[in-house]
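Sequence in, structure out. Go.
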Amino acid sequence: MNGIGGIYNRDRVPVNSEDIKRMIASVPHRGQGKVISSANNQIVLIQHKLHSAPNSAQDKLQIVKSTSGARITLHGRIDNKDELILKLSLKDDDPNRLTDPVIILKAYERWGTSCPKWIIGDFAFAIWDQNRLFCARDALGIKPFYYYLSNKKFIFSSEIDQILACAEVPFSCNKKYILNQINDQYPDSESTLVNGIERLPAAHTLTVSEKSLSKNKYWDPYSITPQKYHSIDEYSEQFIELFTCVINSMLQTSSTKIGVLLSGGLDSSSVVCGLKKVMEDKKSFKDVKIEGLSLTFPELDCDEKKSILEFSNLIGPDHINLNFHNHESIDIDTALQQIATSCAVPNTIIGFAYNDLFKLANKNDISTVFGGWGADDWLGAHPCIYKDAYKKSSELLFLKPFIYDVNRLGGRYASLIHT
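Output:
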């Protein structure tokens, strides 16, 4: 787990070094922290790094600086690196020097503040350039980006706790946000549990100077023209091609073990099959083992161990090593303690259960873990799907998928009619 942070004093007062120390100390799980500051110490950038990707070790925890003087701190990775190298005419450069931060800086130098629309991957970054701070978050909002703004100060981070570590940031609970969470209402894309601390929405950039702040949306999924094919087979072939491409681009690790949060369902098992195919095609991964990380619930109907074992036998035990954790109950006291020590969104009950799998991964030296989160939502009548349909169509067309799901799933979702 890597991370970023920083303080920009818009009133040109030097940044308080104690605030920086507290910001770094507040997130020890994000790895070692390194800082770089401007000549007058008006801005300080923080980079946290754990070494799990091939570029990580060779970066040696550096905040990259361009020839023009721009500096970047990055949390994330680029998935279309080869494409960008060609577009930016960097193919003759030393590949060992073309780390992800360097490529993003080159993209910024070429395309300016529109550079994120050319970058595919999971990322949150900040670039200090000529008395302004340019920030961006990936298209789907996978990597977090929080910030606090006042007339004198702009603070950004990967976690809310980093910002609250600064002495001048007041703490006040956002009661509206909490009520929305309790009532299972989806909050807006910018508010947080703490008043005054906001999130940069997915697919947005943020530019901050001494006198101004501006936000810009650089990508909208509704602007995409749907691709239509002639048959189910063609759709299936295209999906498999894209699915394999995504896994291939995300498989950037020098680890000898790749973890997968494996249940008995279609989503995580599909990820394992995709990994198996990609790793067989790449000679560099011939000695890498897929490690299944699975929760079991003995004597409960929700236990999926039987399905997981059947899947393992189907693809071949030589291709996957299974790691089970028997989860008999949720430790409420532990869950409450985790909530109390963090100002992030409280985890779900099953989310707390998955913490045990992450501990299991750490124990077995598994530094990269894939998951299948979200796939079930598109097949199981998740409210987000109806929101999506409503935004794209009329009320009548919006009701069609809703009624279909109620009829298909029966009593399980009958309560949706009353919401």
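Check: The two ends are 38 Å apart (CA to CA). The mean pLDDT is 83.
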